Amino acid sequence: MNESPLRDLLGSAERDPGCDAGLEFFDEYCEAVDRGEPLGPRFTDFLTHLSNCIACREDTESLIAALREMRASKAR
To answer: Are 46 and 1 in contact (CB under 8 A)?
Structure first.
């Protein structure tokens, strides 16, 4: 998800809808990533926000990791 440490610090010049708007897509995005689905244009604004917001990016990465761990433990 991260391209470079510099990009993490500078963020993106694209329009950022902010944290509140991102919450609308948070669960859906994480589940799509966990299932390996193509993200398509539905998540464009959310991805822009993730490139700008370290807190949301960390929350997203944590949820994806938890979903993968749950799936792996069910497969055992």
So the answer is: no
Q: Dig out the tokens for 53 from the structure.
A: 């917001």
Threshold 0.70, pTM exceeds:
yes
DSSP string, the chain: ----HHHHHH--SS----HHHHHTTHHHHHHHHHHT---TGGGHHHHHHHHH-HHHHHHHHHHHHHHHHHHHHHH-
pLDDT tens-digit map of 25-48: 899 999 999 999 999 899 999 998
**Which of 20, 11, 30, 15 lies closest to 69 in space, CA to CA?**
30
Q: How far apart are CA 16 and CA 41, in angstroms?
A: 15
Q: Does 24 have pLDDT greater than 80?
A: yes
